Amino acid sequence: MFIRKNRLDCQFIISKNGIIVDRLQQMKVFVAVAEEQGFAAGARRLRQSAPTVTRAVAGLEQHLGVKLLNRTTRYVRATQAGLRYLEDARRILADVDAAEDAAAGINAEPRGVLSVTAPVLFGRQFVVPCIVDYLQKYQNMQVNALFLDRTVGLLEEGLDVGVRIGDLPDSSLRALRVGAIRRVLVASPSYLNDHGRSETPQALVLHTTIASSAGSFAAGWRFRSNGKEHSMRLHPRLTVTTNDAAIQAALEGLGITNVLFYQVADDIAAGRLEVVLAEHELPARPIHVIHREGAHSPNKVRAFIDLVATRLRAEESLNL
Asked: Which domains are delineated in the chain?
């Protein structure tokens, strides 16, 4: 095997049997195998044969002179060098996609794979309908959606677009504000009729509370009184790992829980839940659509962000 450079100084590998594999294609193969954690899974994702994928990764490792993947009969994992190369390869491939989009023109139809992340309930309620619209509009697109109630690093996990609720730390990500969400305390009318309606946050110690460990608001319940914010240390009788479980317990009449307004908007409108201590709520938390910084955003990313921003800004429960 030997290496030849073309006149654009882009390296190609020419194998012993004369097959030419360009460096970018090898990067794509390596990224697929590393992310799927398997050669067979990577081959399926790329719609290539397993031997072709295996040869591409082996050729890349030989060219670099470093082992990128640890292989066993049970799993494939990136080495430390492989993890560093994976991050660089993702960035390079994203830049190539952006350059191709720019050359093709802003009106070129999106094509390829888009990876999206959002909180679980928010993703199910608001992002999935956006994804469906996007896929119906752009027939050459595929979408991978990762819904988790934790902060997901776009660069670290190879994602294109994310939806974040709450203030954003300084980062290299670009952000577009699309709404804001209240955080509310709610309980069923039956519970409130039996136990009374708290007039101050301090009175919550006399009530049964339900806590969720999901999301970035799990650390404590915060309130605003006399223009100042303060935190309450409570001892919930029930702690669950998902917001929907906490909401269900409140609907069953167990006690008071602390959730985001959109998660209970329908239950409040139908009278199944009531808001308590509304006058002590903190200011609404912003909602942003974020994506990775770059000289040009790929057309597939721009098209999705435009669609999501239009839909979310029209949602009444996200702009109270």
From this structure: 2-102 (1.10.10.10), 105-181+285-318 (3.40.190.10), 183-280 (3.40.190.290)
